[in-house]
Each structure stands twice: as structure tokens, then as C-alpha cells.
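stage 2 :: seqdesign
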């Protein structure tokens, strides 16, 4: 996220940095990988966020918008690449304990965010791994493409 900043205070440079990190990087990585995947087979698993669907927390709106872009790119690429037998999916973590939150989320903000999670706590990065492994397995998810798997302790139940 690169920090918390309201829309009204964001500069063009800050906007560009958030979008480059969270949106442009996905397009670039996918674009570079596609020729190799067409030749050798494989899959793409992108990372989006619960923020893509709920508008994000205070000061994280542009991050949420960038992640919504990633979710839609995932669906669009899945349609483009299905004929090449390349599956494209994404994982959308919810409130996950990360160094970002340790630096930019106050204890009060964390308490408010945790209150939105039915499981009553933030998740860990390790708890996201299973979704990535599932989507990376032809045996387990060979008929799944264009999907976003939510890993959020019930924070969002679409």
C-alpha cells in the first residue's frame, strides 16, 4: 500500500507509485510470462485483496482500486488464455498481519478492522498459502479459471 493517504491528499507521484506496484506490475509480469506459458503450459495466480471489493480502509482507497483492477485483469486474462489451456485465478487476502500493518495501522485501527472479521482476528500469511497451492494444482483446480478466492476469516462473504 505504501502508506495510508486520503484521496484528497494524494499526489500524482504517490498515485503512480501505488498503481505501479499493485496494477502495472501484474500486467507486466503476466505479459512477460504469457509466451512461456503458451509454449510450456502452466497457470497464473494473481494477488488481489478484500479491499478490491469493500473500498478499502481509511487512507487505502487507491490501493483498493488497484486491487480491483487486478481482480478484473484476472477475469479478462482467463478469457483470453483459456484457448491456450492457461488458467488464470487470484487470491484475495483479507486482514492479514504484515509489516505494513505493524508500521501503518494503529492499534485502534487494527481493533476496528478485526471487529469486521467474524473469526475475530487477523489472519497470517501462512493461512493464505493453501489457496495459492490449490489454484496452482491442475489435479485440484484444473476446471477453475477466472476466479478470485477470498481468504478473509469471513470478513467478506460474497
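stage 2 :: out
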Amino acid at each position: 500500500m505504501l502508506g495510508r493517504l486520503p484521496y484528497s491528499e494524494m499526489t500524482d507521484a504517490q498515485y503512480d507509485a501505488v498503481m505501479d506496484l499493485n496494477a502495472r506490475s501484474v500486467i507486466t509480469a503476466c505479459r512477460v510470462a504469457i509466451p512461456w506459458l503458451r509454449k510450456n503450459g502452466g497457470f497464473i495466480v494473481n494477488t488481489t485483496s478484500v479491499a478490491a471489493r469493500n473500498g478499502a480502509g481509511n487512507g487505502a482507497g487507491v490501493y483498493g482500486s488497484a486491487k480491483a483492477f487486478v481482480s478484473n485483469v484476472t477475469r479478462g486474462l482467463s478469457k483470453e488464455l483459456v484457448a491456450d489451456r492457461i488458467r488464470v485465478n487470484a487470491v484475495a487476502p483479507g486482514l492479514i498481519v504484515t509489516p505494513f500493518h505493524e508500521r501503518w495501522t494503529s492499534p485502534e485501527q487494527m481493533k476496528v478492522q478485526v471487529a469486521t472479521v467474524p473469526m475475530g482476528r487477523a489472519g497470517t500469511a501462512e493461512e493464505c498459502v493453501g489457496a495459492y497451492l490449490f489454484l496452482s494444482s491442475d489435479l485440484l483446480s484444473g476446471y477453475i479459471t477466472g476466479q478470485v478466492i477470498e481468504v478473509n476469516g469471513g470478513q467478506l462473504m460474497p
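stage 3 :: structure notes
- The chain has one domain: 7-151.
- DSSP finds seven helices and three strands in the chain.
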